[in-house]
Please model this.
Amino acid sequence: MAAAHARLHRLPTRGFPAPAGCFLTRTLEEMTHVVRQYELEAMRPGLEWLRANRPPTPRRTRLLHLDFHPLNLLDPGAGDLVVIDWTEADVGDRHADLGNTLMSLECMDEGTRAWFDQLCVTTGRWLFVSLYQHDYRGLLPVDETRLGYYRAWAAFRRLCHYGHWLGVGPTMQGRKPSAIEHLQPDHFHCLERYFEKWAGIPVTL
Model:
C-alpha cells in the first residue's frame, strides 16, 4: 500500500484537471463556508488554528488522491495495486494526502462492540498503520511538522463534510443517501479527539 501511494506521489501533474488556485487555500475557504453557513461555532477555533498555522506552499505540488485507503485498492494479480475512486483527486502538498490516509485509518469505525474484537481491531490497526508509515518514509521523505498539520486538517475537513451532510444531506456531495446512516456520535468524537491531538485545541461538531 505504501509503495502504491509513493508511486502515485511521483506521477507528473501536468495536464491534470485540478481546480485553479492553491489547494490548501481552496479547502480552507470551503471549510470556512461550511462553518459560517451552518453556524458551527464550536468548530471556529479549529478553523482559526488551521489558518494561523498553515505551512508554506511546497516547492513542487503532487497528485493527491484524497481517499487513499485499502478499500480503494484492487489487486489484479500482476504485482501492482490499482487505485480506484478518484472523485476527490486534486493537486497540492502530498502531505495532505498522507495525512488524510492516516486519519482515515486511525479514525475508522471498528464496526464491533465486543471488547475482544475491539482489542484485535485496535492492535491490528496500530500494526498496519505503523508498517504503512515506515514503508512510506523509506520511499519518500516526510516533513513531520507538515504531516502533523495535515492530520489535523484532514480530521477538520471530514467534520466539515459531516456538518454539511447533516445540514443538507450527503447526496449534495455526490454520496449515497444511506451514507448518513453511518454518522455516529462515537465517530464524531474520534475525529474531534484526533484534531485536538495534532492541533492542541478542542473542536466540537
